[in-house]
Specification:
The structure is a homodimer. Chain A has about 350 residues and is an alpha+beta fold. The first copy, chain A, has helices spanning about 5-15, 25-30, 55-60, 80-85, 100-110, 120-130, 130-155, 160-175, 235-255, 260-275, and strands at about 20, 40, 45-50, 70-75, 90-95, 115-120, 185-190, 210-215, 215-220, 220, 225-230, 285, 295-300, 310-315, 315-320, 325, 330-335, 340, 350. Chain A has two domains: about 5-125, 3-Layer(aba) Sandwich (Creatine Amidinohydrolase, Chain A, domain 1), CATH 3.40.350.10; about 130-350, Alpha-Beta Complex (Creatine Amidinohydrolase), CATH 3.90.230. The radius of gyration of chain A is 23 Å and the shape is elongated.
């Protein structure tokens, strides 16, 4: 059995769970490398992946005896068999942040479950701490993102539309990685004041400010980086805000290390923002892995601590409605000694 | 208030619901045209969209007084206010197939809900029947899909990889529509035996069979079409299976009309398949709209009837593991008189 399935079983023991149903495809991929529709049952004796006819051939072709996973086609499983998977299991765990209310009820009935217990934290806690293989993939995705940004510095000029720039990024990521990790943001001029702007047909003009939020995937693992750049000399107001955001972003990097408290890191940025009359309108960051947004959320409400080998983003931003916005973001590996910034593109005020 | 919000309120009355929380972004878009993170509350007196600072500017810019929607930033809503939204509401509805178990519990607590009632069917039933505007969008998406297929017939030749063909489709859809409606499938040779194959670096060879499953979006509305084509003369076995699948696909088209029973349509195909020693390994079809897969599912287990202005797919397929597969699919509008096939690409055995 692979290490991750073994780790899940160990944690289940600690929570007095005798079984578990895993339905989130990202968690299934994390535990088994299988990318197909279906559910993974961790029963007393077996690991069982239940799928359907569309995926049987593919799944059987990728699992090895070492994986110790039984593959079943749902159409061959009868009512009794469903009821027997968790026979003599007092408690069976599930992913409460993934499973819909309707599936929750269906599984209790179908599998005749005694106590269906919220147990997603097991998976969240495992996935938060990255192993060497995962870190290598994220590093590679970050390198490709840096290469893409280098390409962009040459490519961007007045006359292009936001959509054309976004498309260039998508093409680069499709050629050098597994495509974009999320919908690329290219927000120019007044559009940059919307943190989640969608690329439009707006044409880049002289004196524009452009915020670009981009990332790609390698073996499913994501990178995430934002840079705000200028076409020609920025205004004094833009320069001031840019440097203020950058100072805060760097301050956070100085504070990131194994053991640092997430709430106090965020609080320190927020109080700087408030002193200046600004507000931090979104989270300061988030975990990155097989999902672009995962735990830990770097937010005032999170009173837990950073741990070695977490990978998180650090992305303070200021947005002036109808005018402009500035966000600067890196993907960062937490180490015992401090932050290791994985996206290394230049952050000093870039003027094109 | 717009017609769709009004329709929801009428249906809520029929189910004795005094309030409803709508969280699925697709349903929110359907009811309000808003595309942003947040939840929509239908309270006794108001329609309220609760979002956060990232989307306030965008949402305020797209809603009009006629929409009758109040927009709130979650950070300005206190504990008491949450508890007052559904004050004096006996029953509040929610989307049981969308809401996670964890949100289900959170909302009951946060909004102090008396009876939180499974009510997604209201939205499912509304969305299943398309209005003129929706049908026009789907028709346009289907036309562009036909144009894309015409382009492909000229473009495809031995030496190209599956990925290159998929990329050509994606590029076409990005140029002429809002991009692809789902991950395009290009499955050649033995890969075509996997109904959900992902495009690979496999090179198209003489005598290959290729299954292409593709669709795009217009104003969020999807098209969905599959064609199986041949590079050079197919084998006798391939020809036989192709014609058998095509006959069944055409037979279904003849049976589709307002009032036709979904179970019996599916049963008729299945019994033809079984007589030949084949099995129908996936659903015969599905509804298409703002989501690529929506109700009704065209499946043996669905004993309901087709209704005028539903839009569904019709996609029988046969898959011979390790050898090849054939699937033929159209997007179809259900009318009083019969089926109106919206994807009109040639289905006779296409040899390139």
């Amino acid at each position: 059995m692979n290490d991750r399935l073994q780790a899940i079983r160990n944690k289940m023991g600690g929570l007095n769970l005798q079984g578990m149903i895993i339905a989130n495809p990202v968690n299934i991929r994390y535990l088994t490398k299988i990318e197909a529709e279906g559910i993974l049952l961790i029963t007393r004796k077996e690991n069982i992946f239940i799928t359907d006819g569309r995926y049987m051939e593919y799944v059987s072709s990728i699992i090895t005896p070492f994986d110790d996973i039984v593959v079943d086609d749902q159409k061959n499983i009868g009512k009794d068999e469903y009821e027997n998977f968790f026979l003599f299991c007092e408690n069976v765990g599930f992913e409460e942040r993934y499973l819909t209310y309707s599936k929750y009820k269906e599984y209790i009935r179908k599998f005749k479950i005694n106590n269906f217990v919220e147990a997603e934290e097991i998976l969240i806690n495992l996935r938060m701490i990255k192993d060497d293989e995962e870190i290598a993939d994220i590093k590679r995705a970050c390198e490709i993102t840096d290469e893409c940004f280098n390409m962009l510095k040459e490519f961007i000029h007045p006359g292009l539309t936001e959509k054309q720039i976004a498309r260039k990024i998508q093409d680069f990521y499709r050629e050098h990685a597994e495509g974009e990790a999320f919908d690329t943001i290219v927000a120019s001029g007044e559009n940059s004041s919307k943190p989640h702007a969608v690329p439009t047909d707006r044409t880049i003009k002289p004196k524009d400010i452009i915020t670009i939020d981009m990332g790609c995937k390698i073996n499913g693992y994501c990178s995430d980086m934002t840079r705000t750049i200028f076409i020609g000399e920025p205004t004094e107001e833009q320069k001031n805000i840019y440097h203020f955001v950058l100072e805060n972003q760097k301050k956070v990097i100085d504070e990131i290390r194994d053991g640092a408290n997430i709430k106090s890191i965020t609080k320190s940025v927020e109080s700087d923002f408030n002193t200046r009359g600004e507000t931090l309108i979104h989270a300061l960051g988030h975990g990155v892995g097989l999902a672009i947004h995962e735990d830990p959320i770097i937010h005032l409400k999170n009173d837990s601590s950073l741990k070695e080998n977490m990978v998180i983003t650090n992305e303070p931003g200021i947005y002036i409605p109808g005018n402009f916005g500035v966000r600067i973001e890196d993907t960062i590996l937490v180490t015992k000694k401090g932050a290791m910034t994985l996206t290394e593109s230049n952050k000093e005020c870039i003027i094109i």
